[in-house]
Amino acid sequence: MAIVKTKVDAVIVGAGWTGAILAKELTDHGLNVVCLERGPDRDTQPDFAYPRVVDELEGSVHRRYLQALAQETVTIRHGVNDTAVPYRQMGSFKPGTGVGGAGSHWSGAHFRPLPEDFLLRSNMEQRFGKKLLPENMSIQDFPITYDELEPSLDHFEYVCGTSGKAGVINGQVQEGGNPFEGSRKREYPLPPNPNYLGSEWFYKAAKEMGYHAYPIPASNASRAYINPYGCQMGPCNACGFCSDYGCLNYSKASPNANVWPVVRGRKNFEMRTHAQVLKVNLADDKKTATGVTYLDAQGRETEQPADLVLLCAFSLYNVHLMLVSGIGTPYDPVTKTGTIGKNYSYQNLNRVVMYFDETVQANPFIGIGGAGATFDDLNGKQNDPTKSGFVGGGIVWARQPGAGPVRGIPTPPGVPNWGSAWKKSVKEVFRHQFYYEVQGSCMSYDDAYLSLDPTYKDAFGRPLLRMTFDWHDNEIKASQFLVGKAQEMCKVLNPLAMKGDAKKDGQHYDVTQYQSTHTCGGAIMGKDPKTSALNKYLQSWDVSNVFAPGANAFPQNNGYNPTGLVGGLAYWCAKAIREQYLSNPGPLVQA
Amino acid sequence: MSDDKQSPSRRRLIKSLVFVPMGVGAAGALHGGLQTAGAAATAAPEGKPNPYTPTFFNADEWRFLNAAVDRLIPHDEHGPGAIELGVPEFIDRHMKTPYAHGSIWYMSGPWLDAPPEFGYQGKLPLCDILRVGMKNFDNHCAQQFNGKKFADLDKGQQEAMLKEAEGNKLKFPDISGKIFFANLLAETRNGYFADPGHGGNKGMGSWKMIGYPGMRADYLDWVEVRDRAYPIPPVDLAGNRG
């Protein structure tokens, strides 16, 4: 018989960014909150302490801070008629686990979406007519606007100590920032980080090409900082261990360093780690959740009753929980009905590596996760699909989160993978190369979705989440167009050699190569319960006391990293719960 | 060695290295027909015996491993090879970790064939990929070269066989030659470049060769320096300085 815990006001599934934000906001409001985290507890001390944290073998090969796929993973197939096979070893994307989740091992790139990103379908149809969009492209508008979300995006940046340069404040363009961005109310909390060589040269090349380069907003503190919660950050020391690693220095914003310290220890809060949530429990009518069932640290089935269930797991696992719990109707790609699993999208990442002679001190072992330079001249409404050939947009950036030799030393074209010639090359190029990346949007399609796998099960007996995804022509054209622009820009810098990787016509999605952890969609927010899983407050249309803030809510992925928007949506969701839901529980938007 | 002038650490390395003609050191010992694993099989370049005795690999596997990593990262004028940096020791130790036994891989069936872009879909964990692959590779060599195993071949033949495996041209009964090769190469690089505390990269030899400062993890004072090479030699996780 299951253990039944005392009922709480809210149970949170997952202790990453959204879980931490919801826990802070709701305990502020006096609610009793329990957070269930499947992984271990983690904090800067002792888990991210130097020197052990910077062990490349354990961090980037054993993936000590990331999710092990042994217990839970997804299956992947390219088309709706294919048989999916498990994502057995981590490659393409890297979900986190443990307290902090992916928010502890991200790099710190902290973008806001562009205003036009929220209204993508409307903008495209108004500007170019309905015929422009391929019939199977299922992109939708977000049900909120940039202006509505601005205060939440702003607050998240101040919680994170984001280091950047505003481009537009109260409608006034600012020198040195991004002139294409949405208007903000104030400057970033901290100035930009210093430029390593690759980003310094990026400004030169961008200027030559006529692009408007600006510092990437980075939640890697450029100065000592105390956030609005009283959490302290130290200036980033450029250690070179951001992606895959927890921050040894209280410099990279994370739930662990920036939010949890003020929530832990509150009398109305409890963190339970090694607590694997199995399902959301629903009342008989399936319109209300009664709590969740989980396995505690001793493997005992335990029920946590709650008035509110907040799904704050990684985007994929939020969708998985909704599907295994019977929340809403699963999406069917044939009839195009149902909403849970609909509009899965990814990110279109491509890289160009440049090699120089020994006089160019690129020092790729130096790293400041999110810092560097980029431009938006090919993103958002600056991209005209009738000229570029694709819908969406992207950014080219110079970013150097830090590289060590175990993570791989890229070698110029024609160099073999081993032997003396390889050795000679890695020795010559290691300190004298850097890369620019193209990070592009990814549209959503009728045939890209998430569902339950009919065959494979996780360690708890549940069907694995099945991902049906492949590159579409639009994204391949985007890759070719944007990488072409990046290569033109790189040529200005006159490297000895260059290696680029635009996608080829007909190229399939390859799960073995790291691309980006920016998996999006599957339980999207929208205006219509027939075409979205969540309303504008991230509330389930079907089960009104379930909220699912996260990148699962994006109807498609824009050209940026998702974390800024994810944090903003979490604050937006918390505000709606505090100011609207609690006084009058039930649907916040009438269907 | 165009950048020696900029790297004091590298200058020191070059001066201190004793270059041993190929075939006399490690490879020579291997060709000597030793049948037992252990000390004599991996003579260090200075001629000192390598005291490491494998506990995961058996004698045949150890011979294969030593011969193969010596081809993948040979000792040459560019810097130390895999043998002198203890890569076989690293791999032997690494095979006993939970990681090598598949602790973070999803290892449940059914096991289906899938195109390579879906990743490894076999049921063997890393340690068995290497072990099974070595046996298959040795058997294949024995068929092709009158009973000679991989370690018995001359260097040119070994390199040719490894290239064929890399290009997926060797058909083994129990495992894909390409997957075996990819994992062997990845483990060899891991052992060559990982922190010496894991058993390879002795004396931080690979870090000194490429100019990697190791685990210093503090470069704020160097981010904006453009006119000089980073001057400080490496440090490892145990605090040793290279």
UniProtKB/TrEMBL annotation, chain A:
<comment type="similarity">
    <text>Belongs to the GMC oxidoreductase family.</text>
</comment>
<dbReference type="Pfam" id="PF00732">
    <property type="entry name" value="GMC_oxred_N"/>
</dbReference>
<dbReference type="GO" id="GO:0050660">
    <property type="term" value="F:flavin adenine dinucleotide binding"/>
</dbReference>
<keyword id="KW-0560">Oxidoreductase</keyword>
<dbReference type="InterPro" id="IPR007867">
    <property type="entry name" value="GMC_OxRtase_C"/>
</dbReference>
<dbReference type="Pfam" id="PF05199">
    <property type="entry name" value="GMC_oxred_C"/>
</dbReference>
<dbReference type="InterPro" id="IPR036188">
    <property type="entry name" value="FAD/NAD-bd_sf"/>
</dbReference>
<dbReference type="InterPro" id="IPR000172">
    <property type="entry name" value="GMC_OxRdtase_N"/>
</dbReference>
<feature type="domain" description="Glucose-methanol-choline oxidoreductase N-terminal">
    <location>
        <begin position="201"/>
        <end position="344"/>
    </location>
</feature>
<keyword id="KW-0285">Flavoprotein</keyword>
<keyword id="KW-0274">FAD</keyword>
<dbReference type="GO" id="GO:0016614">
    <property type="term" value="F:oxidoreductase activity, acting on CH-OH group of donors"/>
</dbReference>
<feature type="domain" description="Glucose-methanol-choline oxidoreductase C-terminal">
    <location>
        <begin position="448"/>
        <end position="567"/>
    </location>
</feature>
<protein>
    <submittedName>
        <fullName>GMC family oxidoreductase</fullName>
    </submittedName>
</protein>
From TrEMBL, chain B:
<protein>
    <submittedName>
        <fullName>Gluconate 2-dehydrogenase subunit 3 family protein</fullName>
    </submittedName>
</protein>
<dbReference type="InterPro" id="IPR006311">
    <property type="entry name" value="TAT_signal"/>
</dbReference>
<dbReference type="InterPro" id="IPR027056">
    <property type="entry name" value="Gluconate_2DH_su3"/>
</dbReference>
<dbReference type="Pfam" id="PF13618">
    <property type="entry name" value="Gluconate_2-dh3"/>
</dbReference>
